[in-house]
Design goal:
The structure holds 2 protein chains of 2 kinds. By secondary structure, chain A is mostly beta strands. Chain B is mainly beta. In chain B, 7% of the residues lie in helices and 34% in strands. In chain B, the strands form 4 sheets. Chain B has a 7-stranded mixed β-sheet, with no helix packed on it. In chain B, strand 19 and strand 20 form a beta hairpin. The longest helix of chain B has 11 residues. Chain B is globular and about 45 Å long. The two termini of chain B are 30 Å apart. Classes of the chains: A mainly beta, B mainly beta. Chains A and B meet through loops of A and strand 1, strand 4 and strand 11 of B.
Chain lengths: 249, 167
């Protein structure tokens, strides 16, 4: 009976006021945080959007079984004085694409402005408290990528080149961010604009990625540098043995 | 808000979270236990807001009177990244438990990785990523965290003694 109840409401779930009420009714007593993940299987192919998520002003295109966790924020934010808004903003809502089976965990924020867009592939796990700032440029995450907690993606920054006050001085846009398929970003990785992280690359915890990282690389540090290639590791060396990860670190 | 969740791992005992007397945990902190890990926090320890303690595979042990700053992240597990498999299929892995010894202090935004012991009364400065053991009384900073040049030669034992007096 409780499954019927959940199915009934979660089928009607969404991010408009009624959808949030339905999500809330469907998820009462389902626990919190990771325990909510199983709700994506209740009313397939509909996923689960937590009633405490705030999604506003964006064109959200979701695949099947998408999980959006507690207090996730997806919002379009246009600074009136930002230079180039008219040029880049094509008049529509910012597009956010979420692939099948992807998880956007709790307290992640996706902030879009000036025609930026975010596209996240299938089976991607975005862990808690990540931040995506897509200003004027797209951010694209490939299929099956793994993004650990506290990762930050910044396509631009406030202009700080001259002596004028930084606030209201417009933005310097570095460019789009691309994370290709199967990449793994560790805890607290910061990715700046104009960077491509190659297929299957591993970025170590706390790195700041300021330039492209080739496919299959293991990179670490601030700024992130290539330490080695995964292909150079024999299959048992990727494990945390004395001559494995410890050596990589 | 504290989230304490445990999930029974395959063939392992259910995880647990043990808080000593007078432990303070800030808002929005996440304490999570899964796949055989557990968390034990000693007497009078302070976990500041928004810290994340995710004990999977291996435990997280925090000593008496330790201070964990805001936005700290403790991850006693890793994914393997052997080249012959896609990242998503890689099993979890660990180099060992995370141990924060008595009276250690961690600044804001410190990330602690698996197999790390932070010694008695050590200080980890803001934003560091701790990948190796920190000796007792040391002051470390940076990514990866290293002993500060200016602090080298400073008697760690002295600082430790000071801490003991206050105890």
């Amino acid at each position: 009976l409780i499954n019927r109840w959940r199915q009934f409401w979660l089928w009607r779930g969404g991010y408009d006021p009624f959808g949030r009420l339905a999500s809330w009714l469907g998820s009462v007593g389902a626990g919190s945080h990771r325990q909510l993940h199983r709700l994506v299987w209740v009313a397939p192919p509909r996923g689960f959007i937590s009633p405490s998520a705030r999604i506003a002003g964006v064109d959200l295109r979701m695949g099947s079984h998408v999980f959006i966790g507690e207090r996730v924020v997806i919002a379009q934010w246009d600074e009136p004085g930002a230079s180039g808004v008219a040029e880049f903003n094509q008049g529509g809502k910012a597009v956010v694409e979420l692939g099948n089976y992807m998880q956007l965990n709790r307290e992640t924020a996706i902030e879009l402005s000036g025609g930026g867009s975010v596209s996240i592939g299938a089976q991607v796990g975005i862990q808690m408290r990540c931040f995506f700032q897509a200003a004027f440029c797209p951010i694209k995450i490939g299929n099956r990528a793994m993004v650990a907690p506290y990762c930050v993606f910044l396509t631009g920054e406030p202009r700080a080149r001259n002596t004028e006050p930084i606030d209201g001085n417009g933005w310097d846009i570095r460019g789009p961010i691309v994370v290709e398929d199967d990449a793994w970003l560790g805890v607290g990785v910061k990715v700046l604009g104009g960077v491509t992280i190659g297929e299957g690359a591993v970025v170590a915890a706390g790195s700041v990625v300021t330039s492209d990282i080739p496919a299959g690389a293991v990179a670490a540090g601030n700024p992130a540098r290539l330490i080695r290639r995964r292909a150079d590791l024999t299959s048992d060396i990727g494990k945390s043995t004395e001559d494995g990860v410890s050596k990589v670190r | 808000m504290v989230h304490a969740i445990s999930r029974k791992g395959p063939g392992r005992d259910e995880g647990f979270i043990e808080l000593g007397d007078w432990v303070r945990i800030g808002r929005e902190a996440v304490l999570e236990v899964l796949d055989g890990g557990y968390i034990r926090i000693g007497r009078e320890a302070l976990i500041q807001p928004c810290a994340v303690l995710l004990a999977a595979v291996e435990p997280i042990l925090i000593g008496q009177g330790a201070v964990v700053g805001p936005f700290c992240a403790f991850f006693p597990y890793d994914h393997q990244f052997a080249p012959d498999r896609a990242m998503l299929d890689q099993p979890l892995d660990s180099r060992g438990p995370i141990v924060i010894e008595d009276g250690a202090r961690l600044g804001p935004g410190v990330t602690v990785l698996s197999g790390v012991t932070i010694g008695r009364s050590a200080i980890v400065k803001a934003g560091s990523v701790v990948t190796r053991d920190v000796p007792a009384g040391a002051v470390v900073t940076g990514t990866p965290a290293r002993i500060e040049e200016s602090e080298r030669g400073l008697a760690g034992a002295e600082r430790e003694a000071g801490q003991c007096e206050r105890d």
